[in-house]
Amino acid sequence: MTLSKEKAGALCFLVLAIAYGMEARHIPLFPGDELEPFTARTMPIALSWLTGIVSFLLLVLPQREETDDIFSVFRGLNWGKTFVLIALMVFYGLTLSPLGFLLSTALFLIGGIYALGERRWSVILLSSVPATVGFWFILDKLLGIYLAPGEIFTMLGAN
User: Fold this and answer.
1) DSSP characters for 11-37?
2) Is 77 within 8 Å of 53 (Cβ atoms)?
């Protein structure tokens, strides 16, 4: 059996896309949304289809270099950065309610950019803070999706 890094990654993403697509069908809809062209399920289902198609193509298209050992696929990868990014994702999930969207997302992006090797603070801050504020503006102001400011800021603002 030959398995390259690209094929192993494509197989993992194909499995995730199928599982995500199956779960996306269970997203509840508001009454009357059954006949709407765009619902809460539309983007997750489209994302799962797109991911599934791309990962399937990566699986079936020919690859230049192949290896016989399944474990050699995972050798030479930078596992330290992977675990740091996973820890940052867990940190983001845990701090989203207490710190709110803006602060926790900015901290997540700052930590992620730093973990990936960028050391210039001007680049880190000028890429993470505007991205966070821009995404917040799109979600909150343009699309009308309420993003809670965070429990800490709610307590500070309470009389």
Assistant:
1) HHHHHHHHHHHHHHTT----TTGGG-S
2) no
With a cut of 70, which residues of the chain have pLDDT below it?
A: 1-2, 63-74, 158-159
Q: By the 8 A CB rule, do 51 and 22 touch?
A: no
Both 83 and 135 in one domain: the answer is: yes
Q: Which of 46, 74, 102 is the last residue of a domain?
A: 74
Domain end residue (candidates: 16, 50, 74): 74
Tens digits of per-residue pLDDT, 92-120?
999 999 999 999 999 999 999 999 999 99
Nearest Cα residue to 101 out of 153, 40, 27: 153
